[in-house]
Amino acid sequence: MLPRTGIGIDTHAFAAETDDAGSRVPLWLAGLLWEGERGLSGHSDGDAVAHAAADALFSAAGVGDLGSHFGTDRPEWKGASGVSLLAEAARIVRAAGFDIGNIAVQFVGNRPKFSPRRLEAEAALSQAAGAPVSVSATTFDGLGFTGRGEGITAVATALVVQTGQPAVVPATGAADGHATGAADGHATGPADGHATAQGDNLEP
Ligand SMILES: Nc1ccn([C@@H]2O[C@H](COP(=O)(O)O)[C@@H](O)[C@H]2O)c(=O)n1
Ligand SMILES: C[C@@]1(CO)OP(=O)(O)OP(=O)(O)OC[C@H]1O
């Protein structure tokens, strides 16, 4: 069986400094919490890197996209972590009969300065996907919306190989048979699937 490639792109705008309740919006990107950095807006945690990776997996398997599996405003995914979405995407793709080869992601943004935490991010995302995830970063040399610091874009590719037939997976979440609820298969810790502190994502 020949391998299949997939592509995913995701963009999130930077949020206001504080949310409606006056709380500071944290930046979650590539599965990591970036202390002191401006957060991204979104229905989930806005982790564009994890979302692009998940969309690339769906694309490679030919099983839809983020919206078809998670919707755009379902309460169970409100504030959900990028790693929880990526882990669920990987589960869905495997249940559809595919092995995951690897995922490669590049994000475009001036901040956060990514390279010092690249290995940490790759470990967090690889653990979520159960397959190697590599991440790189670039700027657009000050051009466009990322250059103006208005948001972040990430693009990802994935490689999968069909090794079996779709499994019958018991639905544990939404009645429409799409994504399972946010509590399913997530890491321990807060219900939104986030780790409790920087570095927690590296725990086995
Ligand atoms: N948010 C970012 C953006 C870039 N980097 C690193 O800087 C290198 C040079 O970026 P250019 O866009 O100026 O070519 C890039 O290759 C990354 O290693 C980063 O760490 N964080
Ligand atoms: C992740 C989901 C979950 O509601 O929400 P957002 O955080 O808004 O992210 P986006 O990539 O814009 O849309 C996909 C949605 O499935």
From TrEMBL:
Binding site for a divalent metal cation: 10, 12, 51
One Pfam family named in its UniProt record: YgbB
Family to which this protein belongs: Belongs to the IspF family.
Identification of the protein by name: 2-C-methyl-D-erythritol 2,4-cyclodiphosphate synthase
Name of the top EC class for this enzyme: lyase
Region annotated Disordered, chain positions: 171-204
The keyword Acyltransferase belongs to this UniProt entry's keyword annotation: no
Species of provenance: Arthrobacter livingstonensis
Encoding gene, per UniProt annotation: ispF
Residues in 2-C-methyl-D-erythritol 2,4-cyclodiphosphate synthase domain copies: 4-160
Composition-biased stretches (Low complexity): 171-197
Taxonomic placement: Bacteria, Bacillati, Actinomycetota, Actinomycetes, Micrococcales
Residues that bind 4-CDP-2-C-methyl-D-erythritol 2-phosphate: 10-12, 43-44, 65-67, 138-141, 145, 148
